[in-house]
Specification:
141 residues; mainly alpha; two-stranded antiparallel ribbon; globular
Amino acid sequence: MKGTPVAATSAAPVTVACTFCNKPTAEVKKMIAGPGVFICNECVGLCMEILASQPETTASESEGTASEPAEMPKPPSWEERVSDDDLLATLPKIAAASASVEQQLGIWVRQARSRGITWTRIGAAMDMTRQSAWERFSGEE
């Protein structure tokens, strides 16, 4: 996928970026796509390093039980590890990731509409009303 934009249905091509580091496809060797998210080979490598450095745990230890979900990973302690400059530098990266996910969500909704799926079903799938789904994604005023 290097340097190749992902085509949106009946819209201009969309250039994707890694959801984790925000590097575009042109700056990495490989980009792996998931539902609305992307991860580059560099971030996959970093994830592999992190996993390799962690002690092995059983599935029940790492995922929680059926009645108790796995604990959400926490960001570093803001007071101890992240300077104000680092915190502020992270904000645009998170905003860019959010914009990318929103763009991908729009592509998936347009695909659903092209298949004739109703706004009612789309809204229900997204835990919102038909009207909210239409207002957010129809592009009509």
